[in-house]
Structures are given as C-alpha cells and as structure tokens.
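#lab-general

N.A. 3:47 PM
ok so I finally got the sequence cleaned up, no stray characters, all 344 residues accounted for. can someone with queue access submit it? mine expired

B.Y. 3:52 PM
send it over

N.A. 3:53 PM
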Amino acid sequence: MLTALTVFTVANVLSAVAEDYPVLLATRVLAAAGAALYTPTANAVATTLVPPERRGRALATVLGGMTVATALGVPLGTYIGRTDWRLTMWLVAALGAAAFLGLALLLRGLPAPAAAPGLRARLAPLRDRRVLGAASTTLVFLLAFNLVYIYLGTAMRPATGGDAGRLTVILLVAGVASVAGSWLGGRAVDRLGVRTVLLVGSTVVAAVYVALPWLSGSMPGALVYAAVAPLAGWAVSVALPHRLASLDPPAAPLLISLNSSALYLGMAAAGGAGSLAITVLGTHWFPLTSAALALVALTLSAVTTRRRPAGRMSAASTAPSTTGVTDSMGVTGTAGVTGSAGAE
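B.Y. 4:20 PM
back already:
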C-alpha cells in the first residue's frame, strides 16, 4: 500500500508540472496504476482484519473512502480546476502524501505477506466458473455504471444548460448518495446476503437508466438520478468483491484482486463504449446503453448465484464449515455468514 501511494503521489506531482499533453497523459496513466495497485490491496487487508461476519462492513468501509472521495473530491477538484487545473493536481498529491503518512503510522502491525503468486497462479481461479461468472458480472456492471458517469455532463446538459454550478450540485448529490450506498450495501450484504443485494441493486440501476432520458430534462429529475443510481450502484459494488472473497476466504486477497481488475477494465472500457453510444444513439438516448448493460449484469447475477437444489449439493458444499464461512448464497455457516460460492 505504501508503494502504491508513493507511485500515486509522485505521478500527481509530475502531472502538476507537466509541460505538454503527452507527458501529462503518461503521468495520469502512472497515477492510475498506483491507484489500481492500492485499491485491491486495501480491500484484501480489510477482510483480514475483521471476523468473517463483518467482512461486508469492512469492505464497505474501504469503498466508503472511495465514495467520500467522489462526494467531495470531484466537486472540489472541478471547482479548483476552474481557476487552474494544476492546483487540482497539487491538491491530490498533498492528499496522497497525507495518506502515506497515515498508513505508515497507523498500520505497522500487519502480518508479513506470503510469497507473491505468479501470473499463471493469479489467473488460475478464472477456470472456476463461479469466479469467472462473478468477475464477468463486475466487469459488465462497472461498464454500465461508468458509461453514463464519465459523460454525466453530456447526459445532464438538458437540466444544467451547460452551467458548471448546476453540474457540481448534481455531482455532490451523487457523491453523498454513493457514500450512503456503500454504507447500506455493507450492512445489507451481511444481513440479507450477496444475491439479494446484487439482484435488487442491479434492477434499480437498470430502471433509473431507462428513465434517465426523461429525468435529465429538469434539475429535479437529474437530482432523482443522482440520488438513486449511485445509492444502488455502490451497494452492488460492495456485494461484488464480497461475493468473490466468500468463494474461498483463504484466497480472498487474490480473488479480490481479480475483482478489481474486472472493475478497472469495466471503467476503462466505459469511456470508449460511451463515446460509441453517443455517436450511435445521440446525447439524449445513450443512457439506454447503460440500461441494457445493467440488465445483462442482472441476468449474470441471477444465473450465477442460483441456489442449488438440496439433492444436487456436493459433499464439499454440504460439509460443515471449519472457518465459519460457507460458500453458498443464502446458506449460513457456523459463524452466521452468508457467502456465495455454493451458487451455481
């Protein structure tokens, strides 16, 4: 985590002093690499610091940091950037340095890491159809979720009229709803199970995207989108890594890293997919692409988390759990934890 924050902070300093666009682009890629290294590591650490029955809340806490950053960082960065975009880069670099100091002081007692697996070992879990189904769901859902968010200014232009102040208000409401979604998602996963959160959250997100071409016609409608879609979307974002971690708790760090890879791949693809959707459907109707993708994610969730009939449960899945965690959606282990690996 300290290495990741070092890369992230130095990259933002280099962005702040970049003299031309190619250098700026390269430093942004470097900063993204640092962030991508940090996120799955932080999620994995969070799952190891708490008992299994609190894993959902632990993941929600880490993701809550990301959503707070969305709630505060995006509007603040947009506001500061109106004066000088380099000031935004310096602010991010300062925050990265502060995070480095916080980790260096507060997380000294972590256990030594195990030997790092090679690339073949990292990809081996994808041969398990449950892992592949979970990772595919993450990729498709994050593609749907970010396709609109990346082009939110375009989607909301009928409501904002191009006014940056109105867009900042929409972003702020979306950020607050994201924080609430992470908090709600962590508790809902621990209480209701991953399957319920995935199905309900994906359904709500798909419905909001279907309605977005009409909601975006006014500020009240835009604020409805900003309150509902991030609330449901970030609840799902908590359930996705929890589902993978529950498949094999001892291998949770590796499985969460696969989830993060799928997450970032979905985010990366969303830029190009959104541009194509705008070209084909226009600036008013392109959110329907996100609705269709959310329905695909919903279908994947429904199919890959089906409960097996009792007669078809394998001996391994019906054996008592020695760790207190089962690998079955809706089946509770000795510690009362609902996992996901027994799903088909």
